[in-house]
């Protein structure tokens, strides 16, 4: 494995959304390799996405759909009140409407949402009280993706669809960050030579949080649907000389293959952690909606117990410790990212302090190790 070259120029810090050229990604195609799901759909999922399925708040369905501002899903804890980073492999789908046999997000959970369709991906950014879908108060979150320790998905058997192309399609590459008060979800719907789906939906930067990995408008109390430019792939920074540098999250670990234990290093301990995404892509054709609701009164929110909230305090302190030791400035970078991108409409979420959507320490470690194993296997990374 090539240890990631972590040459990072902090030019990103000062770059404003307006002053950088948009990402040039060639001519994306929905038929590019790695766009459409080709293998089996998860065993706990219905065979196809479907609206108006029976409500079952203990469902294990792991089929998430991102169709519109009021028809989307996220992954969340299977057992309400568990730190999501510890249980990423068993998370289940929670949807705004009864669909996919999945659990339903109770009305009143989501306080703001932004649905953006770009030529390369569809992206949902939402704010709210996600303790109502089982997150622990204060939990800075977990990162879900189609790889995981066994490359069977995180959650195992997790799959995603969207109908933004005009029909329901299963897609192969996606990433979903979920914390107690913020979530983001990107599904890559087209690819090109410059922007293969594994790059545009690159999911290893999980301590960096939503604002960094999926830049966009995270303003609360707004429900908005927009078209948008595609963002630069996560961690990619164009440089003045025409080259690009790539930020790789620093971490080390071990894995066992054929009975031998190998250690690995990703990134570099002394690298500069960027303070924000290279740019926030511009949007157009935005339409707002007053709110979103399924009108179902009988759905009881999952509540995290007092035990859970006391564990959240330790989890979040563990998380900040972990981040500090991971890269020195990672937690600084999250707050930097919130303030640095205030011009892009993040002020709403930035004001709540720790709305980074970053993983808890344990979650990061697990997710990262999983990712690295997959990289080792040459399974998907470029
Ligand atoms: C379901 O997810 C697995 C694991 O990521 C993936 O290999 C498979 O292609 C997906 N199936 C579909 C139909 O999208
Ligand atoms: C709800 O989902 C769980 C987990 O899949 C299943 O065991 C249970 O039978 C389902 N309940 C109903 C009423 O379908
Ligand atoms: C996508 O799904 C929504 C339901 O959320 C439906 O209203 C819409 O017509 C569907 N679009 C297409 C193109 O099938």
What does this structure look like?
With 382 residues, the chain is an alpha+beta fold. It has one domain. 17% of the residues lie in helices and 23% in strands. The protein contains seven helices and 17 strands. The strands form four sheets. A seven-stranded mixed beta sheet has the order 7-10-11-6-5-12-17. It starts with 10 loop residues before the first helix and ends in a 6-residue tail after the last helix. One 2-acetamido-2-deoxy-beta-D-glucopyranose (NAG) binds at residues 51, 67-68, 71, 163, 166. The site of one 2-acetamido-2-deoxy-beta-D-glucopyranose (NAG) has 6 residues, from β1.
| Low-pLDDT regions | 1-18, 304-382
Bound molecules: 2-acetamido-2-deoxy-beta-D-glucopyranose
Question: Which series of helices and strands comes N to C?
Answer: HEEEEEEEEEEEHHEEEEEEHHHH
Strand order of the biggest β-sheet: 7-10-11-6-5-12-17
Rg over CA atoms, rounded to whole Å, is 19 Å
Quote the distance from N terminus to C terminus: 12 Å
pLDDT average, as an integer?
A: 74
Quick structural gist:
The chain has 382 residues and is α+β, with helices and mostly antiparallel strands. Helices cover 17% and strands 23% of the residues.
How would the blueprint of this fold be written?
Blueprint: H1 11-14, E1 63-68, E2 71-76, E3 92-95, E4 103-104, E5 110-117, E6 121-128, E7 142-144, E8 159-162, E9 169-171, E10 174-178, E11 182-188, H2 197-200, H3 210-213, E12 223-228, E13 236-238, E14 244-246, E15 251-257, E16 260-266, E17 283-289, H4 306-327, H5 330-340, H6 347-350, H7 361-376
Bound molecules: 2-acetamido-2-deoxy-beta-D-glucopyranose (3 copies).
One 2-acetamido-2-deoxy-beta-D-glucopyranose binds at residues 56, 58-60.
